[in-house]
Amino acid sequence: MKKIILAIALLAGLQTYAQQKYQVYNFSVVNPKQWVIPKNDTLDYELGTYQGSNALIIKRKIGNYKSASLAYKPGLNFKDGIIDLDIACPGKGGFVGLAFRIKDAHHYQVVYFRPGSSGTINAIQYMPEKKAEFNWWDYEATKYQAKAIVPQNKWFHVKAVIKGRRMEVYIDNAAKPDMVYTELDASLPNGAVGYWHGNTQMGAYKNLVVKAFN
């Protein structure tokens, strides 16, 4: 019996070790020449500071509830792993987040945050984007959302653990996930990782680090 218990413990340890094998991609330094960053008549960006920290600042000049924009470095073929980043949403309301398994500007998966809805079921939202127009209204069902405390007007840390069709989202190093979603879109299996900026006058983003499981 002891040998069986020992074998089980050893197997569990090997599985844990295997899960910890990953390749680290540090995207904390944003080089506009290497990144895809939105810039047009209604959207602009700068490499500036927010609350004393260097950050990518994205500004939307004209509000539009159908707006959604990405900032990312192409070339990464992320499937499973851990994504860490820091986000801030100055002002009232707003929608800021992270995109993963990015194919292009209109095909990706996103988890975004509504600081103005902190403490309610609308605080966190997941959705796959597969249209030229950002269609959040197709994903208003409760199963796509989660209740959480999302800080307004200051930096908060986000960690997303993604494995297959499962995603766990942690805010500010919480011991338990603030969101668990088990039906990630299978038609978007891999791709780049980056910042997501919704219908928000200003968003600040920094410290994007991806640990891709081997």
TrEMBL record:
Keywords: Signal. Residues 1-18 form the signal peptide. It comes from the Bacteria. It comes from Mucilaginibacter celer. This is DUF1080 domain-containing protein.
